[in-house]
Write the C-alpha cells for this entry.
Amino acid sequence: NAGVMQNPRHLVRRRGQEARLRCSPMKGHSHVYWYRQLPEEGLKFMVYLQKENIIDESGMPKERFSAEFPKEGPSILRIQQVVRGDSAAYFCASSLSRDRLFYEQYFGPGTRLTVT
Amino acid sequence: QKEVEQDPGPLSVPEGAIVSLNCTYSNSAFQYFMWYRQYSRKGPELLMYTYSSGNKEDGRFTAQVDKSSKYISLFIRDSQPSDSATYLCAMSGVTSGSRLTFGEGTQLTVNP
C-alpha cells in the first residue's frame, strides 16, 4: 500500500493525558500536512512540515500542540494534557516537494481521537 | 465571514441524475481549486483540481471555476449510488500552496 498511513486509527485518552498521532507519507513524498476535522465542521489546516523543518504552523493552537517530522520515521502530532474539545478526526496529507508552486495533497485515513 | 462557503446539504438525488455541487469564496488570492470526496469515517480522496478559471473534465466529473464570481462547481453526470459521500471543495493560493482551505462539505446521497 503506497498511500498515506496513519496510526492509530482510533485513540481514546482521558483528560490530562498525552496523545501521539503518527503519519507516514506516501512513498516519494517529503512534505506532510496535518488537518483537524471537528464534529459537524470542515477540515482545518494545522501545520505543514518537511523533513526536520516546520514550514507553516499558523493553524496550530498555541498551547499543548506540537508537530515534528524527523529525518527518519513518521511525522508525529503531539497533544499534551488533552481536553474534551480535542476530540476530533486528525488527518495527515502528503505531497511531493515544492519545486513547483502546487502539488496535490493526498490524505490518509485519519486518527479519531476521543477524550473521555 | 468564512473564507469558503459550501452548502452542507444534505442533497438526495435519484440514480442517473446530474448533480451540481458549489462553493463560493472570498479570498481573491486563491488560485488552485480542488474537489475531494470523503466516504463516512474515511480520509478525503482527491477527485480533481483546477488552476485559475476554466473547466476540467474527468469521466463523469466536471469542475468549473469562475474567478470573477468567486464561484466553483463540481458536476457529476449519470450519478451512481457509489457516488454517495460528502464532497469537499478546497482552495489554496500561489504562495500558500502549503495550506488548503476547505468548505464544510456537502453530503450527497444517490438513491437507486
About this structure: Residues 36 and 90 of chain A are 5 Å apart (CA to CA). The interface with chain B takes residues 4, 31, 33, 35, 41-45, 48, 55-56, 58-59, 91, 93, 98, 101-110, 112 of chain A (CB under 8 Å). The mean pLDDT of chain A is 92. Chain A has no helices and eleven strands.
